Amino acid sequence: MLKLDGHSYSETILHRILHMAGVVNSFDVAAVALSVVGEIVISDRQINKLSTEIGQQLQQDRDERTARYVNQDLPRRVTEVTPAPELAAVFCDGGRMRTRQEDQGPGVHQPHWREPKNAGFHRMQSGSFAQDPQPDLPECFRNQAYVEKLVKGLKSLKKDGREEDPAETPSEVEVASPSPEPPEWQPKTLFRSCLSSLASSDEFGPMMAAEADARGFFAAGKKAFLGDGLAYNWSIQQRWFPGFEPITDFLHAVEYLYTTAKALDPAPAAHWQQYVTWATACWQGRVDELLAELGEWQARVGSVPEGEKLPESDPRQVIHETRTYFTNNRARMDYPRYRQAGLPVTSSLAESLVKQIHQRVKGTEKFWNDGPSGEAILQIRAALVGDDNRLATWLHTRPISPFSPRCRAASLATGL
Fold first, then answer.
1. What is the dihedral of CA 176, 342, 224, 116, to 10 degrees?
2. pTM (global) more than 0.85
3. Which H or E element spans position 369?
4. pLDDT tens readout for residues 12-53
5. Nearest to residue 232, comparing CAs of 118, 62, 338, 67?
6. How many helices (H) and strands (E) does the chain have?
7. What sign has the CA pseudo-torsion 108, 113, 117, 118?
8. Residue 325 CA from chain centroid, whole number
9. In the sheet where 117-125 sits, what is the strand order?
10. Cα 23 to Cα 16, 277, 359, distances in angstroms
11. Which among 247, 230, 238 has a CA at the least distance from the CA of 330?
């Protein structure tokens, strides 16, 4: 029995088509690869159609699971798994993809940028320590070439309308593991799942909570929520993850401090020394001391006139934005305590996830319909990036699948 669905593709063939569609950088490349490697003859248009259709079904399944979680009677009963996670870490970060108005005929109509919201859910192994296991600023953050490259990469990832330059953007390996051997205190990922969506932050928060609950995260021994400092991350944390330790990503603190030091003094030796001093204070949790010094610098160079926004390179504007960032996030920057508890202090895993999503959805002259196909490709890509084998499992168990329990039960009942 071939077990064909409505498209006359077996489950195995359909999985191969969707897997290729979510891995390579375009549907026409997927068509060529399937023909050459898999001996599957299919047009890029049909691959696009299948990806949109299955992606929409994955989206519907996600939304139904989210609704079931949200609509539970309060207080909600947390899902428990055996064994319970030692550390449940949730990472949230935004990306960029170009979209166009759909149903406007051939060509690109009303092109614009959208922000896919991405979340990683990491079941982690974690220790605890009698004192701060790494009080000194790590060597990687005292390496000027690395920091320069890191900051350029972070700015590129978050800037509207700009493609990442491979020559400037840190590789996934560099961002995720900046030192050759991660120190022993750093928690280690055992299993990861992820979400990606063009939904608003108000919609994305409950999706994240439903995914976390399905993984038993709310019953974990230790819980952490890492974000880059943007306000919507902490709104999600406070509303849906109140029992999780909120932690501001140290990498983004480095970005602000290095940018500010560079704006104050163009001489490489001088601004580098200033950055190292500030980064050390931040790493050691001396944020109030850092804010006081930034306040002195603001008084020295001048304040931003009320109601004005100066050019982003103006030292007054740079210091103002950095002071605002650290003031808003000071309560989430107790890095010595987090390290002592064996919690992560950087969102490098989130940055890596964003880059993995970008590899499929972002590129020169690549536009997605601002509607079903844009959201659908994010579902396909997220299903492939995680460790949960989500796409294959879902294809096997969806109601239309001949392998699903409901379909088998119906077959037995009818004698087919």
1. 0
2. yes
3. strand 368-369
4. 999 999 999 999 999 999 999 999 988 899 999 999 999 999
5. 118
6. 16, 8
7. positive
8. 20
9. 188-197, 117-125, 87-94, 222-227, 245-248
10. 11, 43, 8
11. 247
